[in-house]
User: Fold this.
Amino acid sequence: MSIFINKKTKLLVQGITGRDGSFHTQQMINYGTNVVGGVTPGKGGTKVAGVAVFNTVEEAVAETKANASVIYVPPAFAVDAIYEAVDAGIKLVVCITEGLPANDMMKVYPHVKAKGARLIGPNCPGLISVEQSKVGIMPGTIVKKGNVGVVSRSGTLTYEAIWALTMAGMGQTTCIGIGGDQVIGTNFIDVLEAFEADKSTKAIVMIGEIGGSDEEEAAKFIKKYVTKPVVACIAGQTAPPGKRMGHAGAIISGGSGTAKDKIEALNKVGVPVAGSPTEIPVLLAELIKKSKKKAVKPAAKKTAAKKTAAKKKTAPKKKTAAKKPAKKKVTAKKTRTTKVKTVTRKKMAAKKK
Amino acid sequence: MKIHEYQAKQLFAEAGIPVPAGEVATTPVEAFEIAERINKPVMVKSQVHVGGRGKAGGIKYAENPEAAKVLATNIIGMDIKGLTVKKVLITEAEDIISESYVGIILDRATKKPVIMVSPAGGVDIEEVAAKTPEKIFKLHVDPVEGLHMYQARNLAYKLYRDIGQVRQAADIIMKLYNVFWNVDASLVEINPLITNPAAKVIALDAKVNIDDNALYRQKRIAEMRDIESEEPSEVAAREGDLSYVKLEGSIGCMVNGAGLAMATMDLVKRYGGEPANFLDIGGSSNPQKVVTALKIILGDTNVRAILINIFGGITRCDDVANGIVAALNELKPQIPIVVRLTGTNEKEAANILSSYNLPFEDTLDDVVKKAISLAGIEN
Assistant:
């Protein structure tokens, strides 16, 4: 299994005749992605890498039944391309293009939501569901099939982290770059929720960076709803305040958005933060070990406690005190889970039927 | 991109926001002439891209043109937080009855513009937010609907009781929102928004930052860029289509990708060094970019070793290697360079560089450690 894309994904490439579009169309096909068509106004009727090109997304969707699109068009036209895709009924739009004005993004975001679609990016490397489908520009050679979900605001740093996992023998389910801009369509929480619901994903790696408060929000979400082990990595500990570090969103402004704050927030909810990408698999292995122990321990404790309680009636105080808060925690978590997880649960229930 | 106060005030004035009369001067004589034209006491305000100008002595009151000339002589050439003052704004001095704050920024969490007002103006608003958050009032605006008059008026009521002043402030907030939207600003700010003895509401200061991604369609604003007020190496990097930020350390870094560049800098620090810069050569692998990047790093006299870290995806390692060779031949660097090229076409890259005797490392951690040892930093 995987999230967002799989073998059934039928992909359109918007801007397929451009330099990047044509190159990556071939790369995606080589990986096994089902690229069903491309769109470039004025180039309809031609072919790129054996793929039919259409003048409009509407026409392409009618002909090919595409359900996802990837955007490589230049920044001045990329926002329009997002509108065109969702208006034609596409439910997953991945925008690779970098340099979209924030004002335009603020306007298109609610439109995408209203159409019930998902936007990933802009300014992102896309995603790979290992051995199923690749949408975007991530190198297909570094991934390996497994059970770790990877989500990141970065591009090459993600590759570095994926490579470290692969070298350590820890394969992946889906690897996704959500983009480095200020306004992005899919944030950490959206992806964490999807990974939590995905049965084949057993552990999660989250790569953040300075700027904004997405990592802090993710930490809160993890505490409440994520049961799978999560390891993080935060880039930009040495970044000075007030300077944009490449990504439009990577800026410490007004003293907020520092790496220190993010690391603290994550550590507080039990998410270890790697100091280097190579440390990620090490921390993840430790955490998986621990969580397995944890999963065993409470049960063992309970039976042990029951036994001792049955034997020694004189010293129950400590035991009950230790038991009660543990119980409370579990119930609290359950009630909270039911509140927000209704959507995911409905989906799961639907699948079961 | 940042623009100066005098440029921001020009945008405000065009939008109909009341600002004190004023003009910019680059010499004391000009300052004298402007003050004479204004024909009232003036403020002499340094125009640099940094906060806390007043505290640093960069904003002074002048009773008459002669005093303005003397102050301009002192302030022009002054150093404020590492930036040299090249221009001063000579502007009509106002008597201040009250000081408020109005600002609009993009709120990333809600993906909407947020208007913030506070009756506690004239001071650092971040300090107000930290110490007395109850004195800051926020309104998120629907980016599609825009700002409604009643919303602006509700905010104005947080600042003033007098209906006359409320109306003036509401009008200013509406117009400020238009400026924010029309120039693709990432921040617009009036601090302080004052009332004078005639009960008039005036924008005494103005700050506007522009979204770099929108500069392609904001030609006029893009031309407002004051290259003289920026770090020359950062200007050169921008012209070479590179992302570069100068820092104080001694390990020069050249990396592809912003996230990886930051992670590399973090590792430099972790292993006992200090990064000299952030530099992202971007996704393309144009060899000329590599030459420009190395030229910029070598121009920093603090640099004692350079590390090149490339994780090839779209970027092809052999292209980068060709760029390194061109740079070595052209620039003949005298300081050690250590290289890690991994991913797409890494073998070809190793072949290209084999005759150049550059230290080659396989992993991110190793290339950082090597650079630090080559820089002669004791660990």
Chain B touches chain A through 54 residues (CB under 8 Å). Chain B has three domains: 21-92, 98-222, 231-374. The longest helix of chain B spans residues 163-182. Residues 21-92 of chain B form a domain with the Dna Ligase; domain 1 fold (CATH 3.30.1490.20).
